[in-house]
Design brief:
By secondary structure, the chain is mainly α. It is 80% helix and 0% strand.
């Protein structure tokens, strides 16, 4: 009958053999990714010449001091309010239909251009011209949009109890 194995002998690799094997694996990886490594080295060289590596090294070395400064600045009431306002603005923009926002920004850019053109003309607007302009379809559409916007704002202000 067979005898049970009492001890498992694992082959031992000397430190020198381990280094040789690691170098062989590294050579294989360098050969496989030579172009990527060359590009990465070029980027690193450019960063070194421009001082970005020194800057990054300094930032990593001073991360504790930088974190303390950032926290100190964030704790100020004005900064907290600005962060809250930015978050509310992002929430507002996130809730809008992107196509509507795109159309509105294009319309606003066109309107600003038209306004600059009229001001450059230097002509005063008479009451009669104002009344005639309101009957133009483009102006009427813009006024309807603005009145609807004002109505929606007023409705929400009433809901908020203001």
């Amino acid at each position: 009958m067979a005898q049970p194995i009492q001890a498992v002998e694992r082959p031992t690799i000397s430190e020198e053999q381990s280094v040789v094997e690691a170098l062989r694996q590294l050579q294989t990886e360098v050969a496989r990714h030579g172009q990527a490594l060359a590009a990465a080295l070029t980027v690193l060289e450019d960063m070194q010449r421009s001082g970005l590596l020194d800057l990054a090294h300094g930032l990593f070395g001073a991360k504790q001091q930088i974190a303390e400064i950032v926290l100190e600045q964030v704790r100020k009431p004005g900064v907290l309010g600005a962060i809250q306002n930015a978050m509310a603005f992002i929430e507002l923009v996130g809730g809008l239909d992107p196509q509507v926002v795109r159309t509105l920004t294009q319309a606003l850019a066109a309107g600003v251009g038209e306004g600059q053109r009229r001001i450059a003309g230097g002509r005063k607007v008479s009451f009669l011209e104002l009344a005639r302009t309101l009957s133009k379809p483009d102006v009427n559409r813009a006024v309807a949009f603005l009145l609807g916007t004002l109505e929606g704002i007023g409705r929400e202000l009433n809901v908020e109890g203001q």
